[in-house]
Amino acid sequence: MTEANRRAGAMAPSAFAPARVDVERRAGGAFVLRSPMPLEPYARCVGVWLEQWARRDPSDRLFLAERTPEGGWRRVSYAGTLSAARALGQAFLARGLSAERPIVILSDNSIDHALLALAAMHVGVPYAPISAAYSLLSADHARLKSILALLRPGLVFADDGVKFAKAIAAVRDLCEFELVCSRNQPAGSTDFAALVATPATAAVDQAFEHVGPDTVAKLLFTSGSTGEPKGVINTQRMLCSNQQAILQVWPFLAEEPPVIVDWLPWSHTFGANHNFNMVLANGGALYVDEGKPAPGLFDRSVANLREVAPTLYFNVPRGFDVLAAALEKEPALADHFFSRLKMLFYAAAALPQNLWERFEHLARARGRDVAMVSAWGATETAPMVTTVHFRIDRAGVIGLPAPGCELLMRPNNGKLELRVRGPNVTPGYWKRADLTKAAFDEEGFYRIGDAGKFADPADPGKGIEFDGRLAEDFKLASGTWVHVGMLRVRALSALAPIAQDVVIAGHDRDYAAFLVFANMAACRGLCEDLAPEAAPAAVIAHPRVRERLQEGMKALAHAGGGSSTYAARALMLAEPPSIDASEITDKGYINQRAVLTRRAAQVELLYCDPVDPQVVQI
Q1: What is the rounded CA–CA span in Å between residue 3 and residue 5?
Q2: pLDDT per residue over 236-279, tens digit each?
Q3: Which residue, 38, 353, 400, 552, has fewest beta-carbon neighbours within 10 Å?
Q4: Domain count, the chain
Q5: Is residue 305 included in any domain, yes or no?
C-alpha cells in the first residue's frame, strides 16, 4: 500500500469544519457548550429541497432506488418524485386530511413510503411512520392500537394488504380511516397507483406556500428504549435547521452528493431525519436496503453492497458487527465497499472498540483512510445535537455541539447530565401536555436523560464522550455506582463473539452480574461436536461456550477498576429479547429496565447460593 493510495481514500482536513467550541462556565460545576460557528439560514420546509433538485436537473438525477421482485432496481428521479408528491398532495387535500386526520404509514422503507411522506409534508399534512415491527412482529398489536387511538388517522398506508392484514384487522374499529395499499389490495381499500394518478391543481402550490418552519411535518414515536413510545412533534424548522447544521460541519456534502445504501427505518429519527433528509438536502441518491442485520435478512444487504458502492455508510453497532464478518469473509466485497467510501458513521448505541479496530484494518488493507465518526441526539432533537467533524482514533467520542445547538452539562450524581436547547428541539409531545412540561427545565433546555464527559478535560475541543443513560445507572450495596452504558460496551468487547448483547444487574446487590443474549451463530461455531439442529439451550450450555464466557468475565475483572467494572456472575440466555415486551427496538437497542423486569426470575438465579448450575462465575 503506497502513501498515494492511502491519501486517495482519505478525507482532507478541509472536508470537516474546525473542531472548536465555546465553553461558558457556570456555578456549581456546570457548563454550556456552543459552536462558535453561527447557524446559517435554512430552508423553510423540506419541500424546498425537493423542488430545488427537481428543477436543477429535471431529466435524470437519481433520488431513490429499490429492489424489484425480479431482482432489478426501480429508480425514481427528483423530478419524478416531485411530480408524484404533487399528485398525492392533491389527493390528500381532496380528502380533507389534516392534523386532526393525519396520515399513518405502517410499512417499511420503500419508494412508495417516501412519496407519501414527501407529499404529506408538501401540503402541510402531518404523517406518522410507525415501526413495521409493531404490525409484523407483535403478537397483540398493543402498541399499534395505542398509537392509532391517539392519532385517529384519516388515511393508513400499508404497502401489502395481505402482509399487514392482521395489523389492519386489529385497529379497524379504533377509528374511521381510508386504507391504501400498493399491492394485494383488500376489498374496500384504495390502490396507491390511483392516488398517484390524481391530477395536481393550483391548490397544491397554494398549500405548499403556506408550509412554514413551525408547520408540523411528522410525528415520530420514540423507540421505547426507556419506556412507552411517545409521539414526538417534528416541525419543519427542526428538520431543516438540523440539515443546515450538518452541512456546515460536513462541507464535503456540498462538493459531492452522497450515495448511500441504507436499511435504517424511517420510523426512527436516525434513518429518516438524519440519513434520508441528508440525501434529499444535498441532491444525493439513496438505495433502499431491504435487508437488515438480522438472520435471513442480512444476505440482502450484502447483495446490495456488491452492486452499489456507497460514499457514506451508516449503521448501528449490531449492523457493523455482521458487516465486518461479511467483509472479512469476502475480500471482493470489501474491495468494492471501500472503493469510494469516505466515511463510516455509527449511532444509536456505543460501538465496541474491537469493531472499530476491525474496520480500520479492513480499510487500511485496501489503501483507504476512511473517517470513522459518530453523533449524538434523540428523536426530540431531529436528531443531531453533537457530531464528530474531526478525526478521532477510538470509539466513544460523540463530537461537539452543532451550529445552533446549546448543550448544558450539569452535575448529577457524579456525572454530567446533558440538556439541549436549539431550533432542532421539539416543541413537545402529541396531545401530552404533561409529558411536554416534564421534558423541559426552567430555562427551556430539553432533558434528554443522557450523561456525557469531556474526552480530554484539558481540551474541550477534543469532543465529548457518551457517559450512559442516567436512568440505567445504579448503585451496588456498597454504594458504588455502576455505569451501565460504559460497562455494557466493555462487556461486549470482552465477550465477543458469543454475546449478542448484555444486560447488567446488581441494583442494591453485592456485585454486578450479566444477563447475556447469545449470538447463536458464534456459539454454534464453538460447538463442533453438536448437531446443527441442536436446541439453543444445548448450545449455550456447552462447555466451550461457558469457557469463553468465563474467559471474557475474567478479562474484565483483571483489567482493574473495582467491583463496578466487571461481573462476578453471568447467565447466557437462549430466548432472544422480545419486542412485544419492550425489551428491544427494531434498531436492536436493548431496554435494560424492561429486560430486568421481565426476566426477574433469571436475575434471581444470578444471586442464588449455592450457585445455580446454569450460572457462570469467576
Answers
A1: 5
A2: 999 999 999 999 999 999 999 999 999 999 999 999 999 999 99
A3: 38
A4: 2
A5: no
